[in-house]
Amino acid sequence: MSKNRKRRRKSYPTPYLNQKKESHDDFDLRFWRNILIFISLFVYLILFPPFLKNQALGGHDAGAHLTYLRLMTDALSQGQFPVRWIEWVAPGQNQPLFSYYQPLLYYLGQIPHFLGFDILNSLYLTVLFLWLFSGLITYLFVKNITKDTLAGLAASSLYVFAPYHILDVFVRSAYPESIALAFAPGMFWAVERLIATEKRIYAGLLAIFTAATFVSHPPTLLMFGIPLFFYICFLFFEKLKSGFNLKLLTKNIIFIFLGFALGGGLSAFFAIPALLQQNLTKASTLSAGYLDFHKHFVCLTQLFWSNWGYGTSQQGCLDQMSFQVGIVNWVVIVSIIAILAFYFYKKITHPAVKQTLFWLAMAFLGMYMTLSVSQPFWEGVPYASFLQFPWRFLSVVVFSAAILSGILFTYLRKETYKIALFIIFMTLTPLLSYSFLQPAAYLPKDYFAQDSPDFYKGIAKGQQGQTALTGYFPKTMEVLPEQNKVPLSKIVLSDPNATGKVVKDTFTYKEFSISSDSPLKAELFIHYFPGWTFSINDTPVRPDTSNIYDFVYLSLPAGNNKIAAKFEDTPLITAANSISLLSIAILIVFLVFEAKKIISTKAGLSKQAKTDGLIEEI
Prior knowledge:
Strand order of the largest sheet: 6-7-12-9-10
Shape: elongated
Strand content: 5-15%
Number of helices: 21
Low-confidence stretches: 1-25
Largest sheet: 5 strands, antiparallel
Number of strands: 12
Distance between the termini: 55 Å
Helix content: 40-55%
Structural class: alpha+beta
């Protein structure tokens, strides 16, 4: 009896992980399987309606992102690239916003805007497209590791319709984070493909996904970087155990490192000022007060169930928004635990067990990070406080649960069981999430005035009370000016008899013509920051910024004077831009070279196959 058990433990017949799958389905089963796959794609259409109403979607940061996209659009039209300095809707609130705040969403939003869509719909089309893309890349990743299309689609569905994913879009309006959740799975896919296929082109794709994740939302890269590091170690360990060539393994390690390094180079234009010049801004306020992570740990019960709301995160268990992992996700996790317990109890081996344990551990690691017991990590790891909300690790939980849902298919031996499980996932997942797929309110299209010529007047209802983010103002600014202090001309002269004229006024260049019979002082409502230079009659001058607003004062002689203020790149910023440009050039050359090599290899194999066929015929 023990011999039979040993024999069964050694050869359990389940295809998985890079083992070629041999289908035993008859024609009818394959036909209906393909029909189900085609029909299942239509479930993603339920994401579309809120974005197609041509109305503003209410949410925590809804107005901010429409404002940022308008500011980015205007800055680009003025010739600023990369965009760094902006002027807020409220007068006298200018700052180097896009040197420190993740800009990729607003760059990508220029694509539909260039095609003719307005600001509102450009933003929503970008968010919707990348939400769907998150499902596509998750599908590709899971399909590759399971060799099963149904598993990939099921995992895609769980990730796309995960409560936290929906929370980001319709409750928090955290659009930069939501698009980062589209790029983060791409890092796992690229790493797995690089190691599995040994094709170096995936190192280039790893660079793209790494840079895109960071420039979309740096905290997401930090959060997903933890399971990604463990996943790379896991894959290498498995390769070594299977007798993988050590020389080839070393090459893979080098190319993974180069992929991350190139990704860092691509994002250098943003990463270098964001990481190295925080001391020039009030960045410390981004992890203080309400944004202090100590106030936002999740209660354990909330992971299982918490009412769906559109309010804010609060200290304790009385939050007005939901932090549930999701019913289907919990069913997957519990089912996986039950299967593993059964296999361990029966001492049955299965090629998916190690991968299953890995992703189960990542799911629980993500949950652990949301709870107060993880406080030592938050207090001990540099930059962790800038994640602000521990419950952001729910993104790691729902991604891990999605992967587990795909792996679940590998434990089913019959195709009919897989089809049944697929139907359950593709039905229940969107069905249980359907009521969440709507914003707190639909607002008039012009509520935030993002497409209005009166945008900078700040008179729209949605603009009332809006201020620029405090954390990105110059550190030397003590208080914000009263809105009625700053005139539309953005300059005040100490001599009431002097006359002034605005010659040019853009975000980064301002020119004024001043005429006065006596010496005077001019106040420019620009917060001084490294990169700003000032001149009077083309002669460089040093401004006086000794005031609580950090505004610029210039002393003018009597007569006609020309004042010019220009914001230019500092040497560090120039170096950061140059690194990104060089990285883009290297990436293009690398991708073209590797693509040509793949094409020539395929052509050679095809030619060899034809030759072999001809020889056989002869």
